[in-house]
Design goal:
Blueprint (H helix, E strand, L loop, with lengths): L3 E5 L4 H13 L4 E4 L7 H11 L4 E4 L6 H6 L1 H18 L6 E7 L21 H20 L3 E6 L1 E3 L8 H11 L5 E5 L4 E2 L1 E3 H13 L4 E5 L5 E2 H8 L5 E5 L10 H7 L5
Parallel strand pairs: 1-2, 1-3, 3-4, 4-5, 5-10, 6-9, 7-12
Antiparallel strand pairs: 8-11
Helix pairs in contact: 1-7, 2-4, 4-5
Length: 265
């Protein structure tokens, strides 16, 4: 019998790429897209009941944009933590495996690649909400015997991103910038682990379809400064003026590659 997969957040950048990855990696699977408001337990429970028996739940839905989270932290916790708890509550009695998409923002800045065993020390409301979602999922799944994999996604980018994410923010500034003037860039010297959203989504889909459990970093493992990332996108040579404090978030991806059998590729 074909696997039955329930996915949340399928309308987002990562979600759309995840649907494409699932179509390729699990072509016989029945994929059900969540339509419920996950902050509403009754609505979520009704949606899961309508879906029927499930084999796998891929939970991507989250409130992510920094500006939105900072402006309304209560809603961020309601979506990121409350939505996760409601989804698991609605799954009571089901043995479906879960893949929870989390974030590198649960980590503190570190000068060396960050392993999954590193201390979690969020410095933002978004990071704290994602860590709390992880903790809730771990405790609930452990109590119910549910298989859980948590993918901590690092710095993704996509040409179709909008809003306050780094790539669209830079592209808006490029459109208005004077090519001959200095380009002020906050955190320019900080190291990040940039990965196209399509690649991140494929990693998440592969982890979901595997039997991996626990936390797994989802990233390239290749450090790049924010300045060099900006230069890679700019339509003209940038005269970057570093501003503010820089910090580093680069992943140790050994576990990811071990699980997926990729060596150190």
């Amino acid at each position: 019998m074909a696997a039955k997969i329930y996915i949340t957040g399928s309308g987002g950048i990562v979600g759309r790429h995840a649907l494409n990855a699932l179509a390729e990696l699990a072509p016989g699977a029945e994929v059900i897209r969540n339509r419920a408001d996950l902050t509403n337990l009754a609505e979520t429970t009704a949606a899961l009941a309508e879906a029927g028996p499930l084999d796998l739940v891929i939970h991507l839905a989250a409130m992510v944009p920094v500006a939105d989270v900072n402006a309304n932290p209560a809603k961020a916790y309601a979506v990121n933590v409350g939505g996760t708890i409601n989804l698991l509550s609605a799954l009571a009695g089901s043995s479906a495996r879960m893949l929870l998409c989390s974030s590198s923002h649960v980590y503190a800045s570190r000068g060396t690649p960050i392993p999954e065993t590193a201390e979690t020390k969020p410095v933002s409301v978004y990071g704290q909400s994602k860590l709390m979602a992880e903790q809730a999922a771990q405790e609930i799944c452990a109590a119910s015997g549910r298989s859980l994999c948590i993918g901590r996604v690092f710095s993704i980018h996509d040409p179709n991103q909008t809003g306050s994410y780094l790539r669209p923010s830079l592209e808006r500034r490029f459109a208005e910038a004077d090519p001959d003037a200095e380009f002020e860039l906050y955190g320019a010297d900080g190291l990040r682990d940039f990965l196209p959203a399509s690649a991140a989504a494929r990693y998440l889909a592969r982890l979901a379809l595997s039997d991996a459990e626990g936390v797994v970093n989802v990233a390239s493992g290749k450090p790049m400064t924010v300045a060099d990332f900006a230069r890679s996108l700019a339509p003209f040579p940038l005269k970057i003026k570093p501003m503010g404090q820089s910090n580093n978030l680069v992943a140790d991806v050994s576990r990811l590659h071990d699980i997926l059998g990729e060596g150190n590729a």
